[in-house]
Write a structure and sequence with these properties.
Elements: E1 2-4, E2 7-9, E3 13-18, E4 24-26, E5 29-31, E6 36-41, E7 48-50, E8 53-55, E9 59-64, E10 71-73, E11 76-78, E12 83-88, E13 93-96, E14 99-101, E15 106-111, E16 116-119, E17 122-124, E18 131-136, E19 141-144, H1 147-154, E20 161-162, H2 173-181, H3 183-199
Parallel strand pairs: 1-4, 2-5, 3-6, 4-7, 5-8, 6-9, 7-10, 8-11, 9-12, 10-13, 11-14, 12-15, 13-16, 14-17, 15-18, 17-20
Antiparallel strand pairs: 18-19
Length: 200
């Protein structure tokens, strides 16, 4: 399955893949969703999350419940209410070239001994209360406030940078709503014009 260039807001999850295989989400904008912008859950396999923008969700993108071989590449995840990327009880996740900025609690959350490889990302805290990374399972809770601390403690993201993560302008929700309200009429006109051309 492939989801390309969608805008999803105001849902439980923007896009959810449940027990899925080979799902690709590319170029989507996912914001103001209650749980997460995108959620790969229940042993989803080979999920690709590429060049998406997420903001003002609880979590920007989330892998969980023994999902494997997830890829997050070239995404911008900012101003989410908890974390930009959350890895929860997963294996084989790969994170590259993402921009994680001003996510309220932490930029990267790793739960239940999730196994992942991460590098060449940009991390940017918005204030002193935020952390670059957060790790926890039943036995421990561990946060790293800065990238150098995270690199030293976890040995990950050794070629990543801290600060200077450029983020895009947020969508004008009123304009988006107005455009969505006229979508059906515009689609009918396009179909009608196409039909007329074929009949000539």
């Amino acid at each position: 399955g492939v989801a390309i260039n969608n805008t999803v807001y105001g849902s439980r999850q923007g896009i959810r893949a449940l027990s899925s295989v080979n799902i690709s989400l590319y170029g989507n904008t996912l914001f103001r969703n209650e749980n997460s912008g995108a959620y790969f859950v229940q042993q989803s396999t080979n999920a690709q999350f590429i060049n998406n923008v997420t903001y003002e969700n609880v979590k920007g993108v989330r892998w969980g419940s023994q999902s494997v071989n997830g890829l997050a590449l070239g995404n911008i995840l900012f101003d989410n209410l908890e974390a930009g990327i959350s890895l929860e009880d997963v294996t084989g996740a790969v994170l590259r070239d993402n921009k994680l900025s001003n996510n309220k609690e932490t930029q990267l959350k790793v739960l239940l001994d999730a196994e992942y490889d991460s590098d060449n990302n940009c991390f940017q805290n918005g204030n002193s209360e935020q952390s670059v990374s957060h790790f926890s399972n039943v036995a421990f809770y561990d946060r790293q406030k800065t990238l150098p601390e995270y690199q030293k403690v976890k040995g990950r993201d050794l070629h990543s940078r801290e600060g200077g993560c450029q983020i895009p302008q947020k969508i004008d929700v009123n304009k988006l709503h107005s455009e969505s309200m006229t979508y059906a009429d515009r689609a009918r006109k396009m179909i009608s014009a196409s039909t007329e051309r074929r009949l000539r």
